[in-house]
Design the sequence.
């Protein structure tokens, strides 16, 4: 890929066609096109509307529990300084966690769902559909649907239904109907196909609540804007707590909504190094990973052009990750653009490394992180010992790991 | 510049009957069988052939066409093989129009310019690419038109009068009216509504209007054909193939013969359409 010229600002996308450079766009069937244009019209109306913002802020504060804390992870910092000392480096940056795991429903997903449910309400829609991988977005969608009295159908790959059973039960308790999808490998990609099929069939009354910053324009933009509260808060909090910007910020990237939410407000702070973590699965040599930006190529799927895992014939591959939330063969289009423009580095972390970080964080911090977030922590574990003690790293702790205890127990060969 | 599609449509108009447009999945269940199906279509009464290009994630298709695409991919079908199939067909039939139908990614990965060159060389006359709405015309539609390949657009019940001109603007060959919102293979929409929609589209264009999604029987083909310039049948044909495959994909009867029998019946429905309308 040719590197695009470095822009004056990295925060101006997308353009009117919904493009971030060559990425993004509106690659959907004609049936959906009028709906997407209608969504864009409503989105443009509300995004600068004071009443809409006030309602969202009120819910974010009193219902979701924002602002989420920026927590100095003293235990992990101490541990990594010991590692640094043992290597004779004598360093170890200060590690902060942005505590999205403390939000209502246990992850960053609620930020986007609250914004979109208010949009659905304004548009006069009567029914909510959503896709989910780990079940975090499904739970958040079912939650806001319950709160606002919408019927809700969640599409979830059959494999994910099996490995995330606690979340399936939560969705059912919240009144949502969970429809398992058996096509393909039965993961997030297949759930998204099925949600799109539902939408194409029920165009009149249905709002598609996409869970990540991907899909046809304007979804990547609106999901990013709803998630940017993470980075806006983190930026203000670190200035307040440390009196300066961080040196490095890290977040895990599946579709990439928690990452773009953290990254976007920092994109024009050129001193801040930004790192996105892809699921390296069992390694990038084979096909058992989900590192679309490290091992894939640009292509068109689910309404947008972006980096995808695909074969030479343009057929999409299934990929693999220990983390259901990262088990997706694509990525949001803005990440693809940030990759090619060189502003953000995207690096893979393996299943085993994430599993180790999961256990380490639990032990030294008393925090059980989601396996998705554990990927981001695993990268911090790698780089922090080689950094100086006066440096600062923020890791997005995008969700809590209660949902993953069965998976982890299995991986560790334990029975619970 | 006229294409085989333009010439075929003009001929049928002169004959006073609608076209039977038949969709089948290229490579389902394997290359050779699929080619034999394709070769059997014109003799059975198909006027225009839609050659399906399999895609791993066909988000606008129902279970039948999804399954057919997966069978084809499992059987080793690729875009290159689908084009080869078209050129082998062309060696025996230089008249029946071929429309390639599928999704954009395999074309994008092949390279748009290279694809258009290969498609022309293989005797392809038109393209239907489900996930390229008019907003994305620069990607493939404009280059295809420049290369002399028809770009056939789908119009749907959600395409209102305000949007219709945009949808029709770069459409050529014919307009494919999707008779309902939904995926392929769903139940047929109210035929009265379909006739009204065809009339609405004809108010905006001189192009022939073919109607698809939900047509399964000769009787339905006859009713739709009374108002439309063509009737598209897809899922029923794909099912005819699936019905002669055993649990392990083995053939229990000749798929080409099964498809030909179905298409012959549909063809009679189409040929009776205007007679019925005239009564």
Sequence:
């Amino acid at each position: 890929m040719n590197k695009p010229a470095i822009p004056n600002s990295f925060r101006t996308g997308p353009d009117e066609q919904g493009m971030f450079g060559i990425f993004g766009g509106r690659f959907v069937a004609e049936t959906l096109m009028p709906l997407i244009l209608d969504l864009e019209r409503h989105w443009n109306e509300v995004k600068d509307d004071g009443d809409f913002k006030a309602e969202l802020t009120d819910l974010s504060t009193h219902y979701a529990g924002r602002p989420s804390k920026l927590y100095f992870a003293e235990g992990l910092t101490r541990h990594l300084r010991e590692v640094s000392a043992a290597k004779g480096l004598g360093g170890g940056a200060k590690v902060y966690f942005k505590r999205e795991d403390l939000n209502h429903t246990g992850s960053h997903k609620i930020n986007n769902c609250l914004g979109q449910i208010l949009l659905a309400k304004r548009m006069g829609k009567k029914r909510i559909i959503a896709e989910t991988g780990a079940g975090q977005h499904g739970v958040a969608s079912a939650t806001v649907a319950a709160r606002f009295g919408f019927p809700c159908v969640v599409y979830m790959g059959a494999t994910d239904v099996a490995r995330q059973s606690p979340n399936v039960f939560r969705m059912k308790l919240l009144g949502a109907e969970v429809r398992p999808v058996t096509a393909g490998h039965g993961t997030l990609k297949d759930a998204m196909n099925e949600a799109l099929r539902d939408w194409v069939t029920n165009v009149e009354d249905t709002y598609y609540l996409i869970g990540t910053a991907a899909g046809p324009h304007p979804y990547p933009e609106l999901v990013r804007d709803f998630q940017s509260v993470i980075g806006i808060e983190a930026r203000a909090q670190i200035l307040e707590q440390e009196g300066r910007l961080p040196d490095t910020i890290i977040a895990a990237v599946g579709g990439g909504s928690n990452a773009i939410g953290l990254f976007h407000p920092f994109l024009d702070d050129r001193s801040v190094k930004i790192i996105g973590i892809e699921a390296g699965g069992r390694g990038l040599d084979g096909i058992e990973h989900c590192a679309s930006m490290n091992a894939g190529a640009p292509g068109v799927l689910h309404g947008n052009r972006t980096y995808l895992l695909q074969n030479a014939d343009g057929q999409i591959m299934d990929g693999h990750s220990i983390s259901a939330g990262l088990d997706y063969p694509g990525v949001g289009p803005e990440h693809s653009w940030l990759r090619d423009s060189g502003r953000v580095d995207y690096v893979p972390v393996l299943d085993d490394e994430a599993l180790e970080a999961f256990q380490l964080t639990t032990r030294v911090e008393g925090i059980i992180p989601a396996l998705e977030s554990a990927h981001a922590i695993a990268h911090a574990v790698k780089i922090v010992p080689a950094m100086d003690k006066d440096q600062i790293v923020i890791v997005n702790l995008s969700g809590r790991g209660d949902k993953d205890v069965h998976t982890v127990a299995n991986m560790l060969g334990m029975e619970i | 510049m006229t294409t085989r599609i333009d010439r075929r449509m003009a001929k049928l108009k002169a004959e006073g009957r609608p076209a039977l447009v038949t969709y089948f999945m290229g490579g389902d269940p394997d290359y050779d069988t699929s080619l034999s199906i394709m070769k059997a279509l014109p003799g059975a009464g198909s006027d225009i052939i839609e050659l399906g290009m399999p895609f791993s994630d066909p988000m606008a298709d129902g279970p039948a066409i999804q399954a057919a695409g997966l069978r084809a991919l499992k059987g080793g079908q690729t875009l290159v093989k689908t084009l080869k199939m078209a050129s082998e067909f062309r060696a025996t039939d230089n008249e029946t129009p071929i429309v390639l139908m599928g999704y954009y990614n395999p074309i994008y990965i092949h390279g748009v310019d290279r694809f258009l060159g290969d498609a022309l060389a293989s005797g392809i006359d038109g393209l239907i690419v489900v996930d390229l709405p008019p907003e994305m015309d620069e990607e493939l539609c404009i280059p295809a038109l420049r290369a002399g390949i028809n770009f056939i657009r789908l119009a749907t019940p959600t395409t209102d009068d305000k949007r219709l001109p945009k949808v029709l603007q770069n459409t050529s060959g014919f307009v494919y009216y999707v008779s309902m919102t939904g995926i392929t293979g769903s139940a047929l929409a109210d035929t009265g509504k379909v006739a009204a929609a065809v009339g609405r589209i004809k108010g905006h264009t001189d192009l022939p209007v073919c109607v698809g999604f939900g047509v399964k029987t000769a009787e339905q083909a006859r009713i739709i054909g009374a108002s439309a310039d063509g009737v598209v049948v897809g899922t029923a044909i794909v099912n005819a193939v699936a019905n002669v495959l055993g649990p392990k994909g083995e053939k229990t009867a000749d798929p080409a013969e099964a498809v030909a029998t179905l298409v012959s019946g549909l063809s009679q429905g189409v040929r009776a359409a205007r007679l019925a309308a005239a009564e």
